[in-house]
Amino acid sequence: MIIKVCGMRNPENIREVEGLGVDWIGLIFFAGSPRKIMDNGQWTMDNCDKRYSNCQLSIVNCQLKRVGVFVNASLEEMMETAALFRLDYLQLHGNETPEDCHALQKRGYLLIKAFSVATADDLERTSAYEGRVDYFLFDTKCDNYGGSGKQFDWSVLEAYTGETPFLLSGGLRPESAEAIRCFHHPRLAGIDLNSGFEIEPGLKDVEKLKRFIHDIKQA
Question: At what angle do helices 11-18 and 50-61 cross, to 10 degrees?
Answer without folding.
Answer: 10
